[in-house]
Specification:
globular; 3-stranded mixed β-sheet; alpha+beta; Serine Threonine Protein Phosphatase 5, Tetratricopeptide repeat; single chain
Length: 121
């Protein structure tokens, strides 16, 4: 199984990470998206994530981040559709989220299920 070694700001925020950070491996576009998420600039974050997904449409980290951004933007139905996309992906890569001090590994599909559950609250 493929392992993705980036720290996910959105997922970390959603599931209680203490201090979200950006890994060194994150590309410039991803970095801009994550900075926008950290700043609550949902429109910019969405634009950056969608641009990144144009080249890697099945990237579970970008999809989870986009779902979070849509959820925070009050677009729960669209967020649910993105979470469903993650659940339909082949494989279930391990993603790291959380703070630099304590990265927390989790499976993409488990995070998508938690995201779906948070929409129902």
């Amino acid at each position: 199984m493929k392992t993705v070694s980036v720290l996910c700001v959105a997922v970390g925020l959603m599931f209680g990470a203490v201090g979200p950070t950006i890994a060194a491996e994150v590309g410039q576009s991803d970095g801009l998206a994550l900075k926008a998420i950290e700043g609550g600039n949902w429109a910019q974050a969405e634009a950056e994530l969608r641009a990144g997904l144009a080249s890697t449409p099945s990237d579970p980290m970008k999809l989870l981040n986009l779902a979070y951004v849509l959820q925070k933007s009050g677009r729960a139905q669209e967020a649910a559709g993105i979470y469903e996309q993650v659940l339909q992906l082949d494989g279930n890569p391990v993603l790291a989220f959380g703070s630099n001090a304590e990265p927390r590994p989790a499976r993409a599909k488990a995070l998508a299920k938690k995201g779906m559950a948070s929409l129902q609250k």
